[in-house]
Amino acid sequence: MKDITKKIKKKILKLDSVEERMKFLKDKYKGKTAVILATGPTLNDHDFDKMKDIFSKRDDLVIIPVKHAYSTTKETSDFHVINLFSMDRKNPTIYDDDNTIVLFNVAKSFQKEHLDIIVDNNHPCDIWFPVLNPPYIDDTQTIQATKNYDLFWMMGEKCESIWGKSIMYSTAIPLALHIGCRDIVTIGWDLGTGEHFYEKEYGDVDVKYTQEAIDNTPELYDWCVENNINLRILSNKNPADSRIERIKTIMDI
User: Contact at 8 Å (CB) between 195 and 39?
Assistant: First the structure.
């Protein structure tokens, strides 16, 4: 898959605007399985070298690590989803190659400041888009609060997203859908744990929004069924709706 992504990245870098780049990405991975790696503690349940070996041999998988999860997938990553709230600004991400498409979301209320940080750090950024956050919306208008999962399509339609109170909702899942993946597997998505697979923490966990996201996963499951989206979870700690299929190993993907 990385050979395909390498060619796609070369083409999008020739396009001037974010809108053109996003339009070009539309359905480019149609029929593939998106593997989204989050930063929960169960990510450590896997041997990272073996995981990368499996990923490198599968041409049907699109690998999308979120934030620090890139350190576990490295050169097998097709995309890297990141924001400024989690980035170590003194030590920005160093990529193993130039063939991963780097996608930043920036808070609309801090848009200029966040873009300045990206530039100041000379951080690779192939696509960026604003996420609507306070004061543009409030807690009652987030994706998980409204249970309006149609908002996942917003990123592809308007080149912006809405506060999901999780980068999974505001960016990672919308990206997978935009590029054409209707089969989505999450690894290390451990709703409710308040922990990460790495030792250093980068901020407090908002227990309210985490519980809200858990409570509203039945509606997420229903939405996926209605839209012919197959969502599967590889985590023994995620308390999401039990109807969402669980898989036990990476080999089950």
Answer: no
Strand order of the β-sheet with 161-162 is: 79-83, 101-107, 127-132, 161-162
Contact in structure between 160 and 128 (CB atoms under 8 Å): no
CA distance linking residue 132 with residue 108, whole number of Å: 5
List of residues 6+ apart from 10 with CB closer than 8 A: none
Q: What is the pLDDT of residue 92?
A: 80
Tell me if 40 sits within 8 A of 10, measured CB to CB.
Answer: no
CA angle 16, 22, 25 (to 5 degrees): 115
pLDDT for 201: 54
pLDDT of amino acid 118: 87
> Is the distance from CB of 103 to CB of 175 less than 8 angstroms?
yes
Report phi then psi at 224, rounded to 5: -60, -45
Classify 230 as helix, strand or coil.
strand
Contact 41, 237 (CB under 8 A): yes
Give the separation between CA 15 and CA 165, rounded to whole angstroms: 31
Q: Rounded distance, CA 90 to CA 74, Å?
A: 20
| Whole-angstrom distance, CA of residue 125 vs CA of residue 85 | 15
Residue 182 makes CB contacts below 8 A (sequence gap 6+) with 227, 228, 229, 230
**Count of alpha carbons within 13 Å of 212, Cβ hemisphere only?**
18
pLDDT of res. 84 = 83
Average pLDDT taken over every residue of the chain: 91
- pTM reported for the whole predicted model: 0.94
Distance CA 44, CA 194 (A): 15
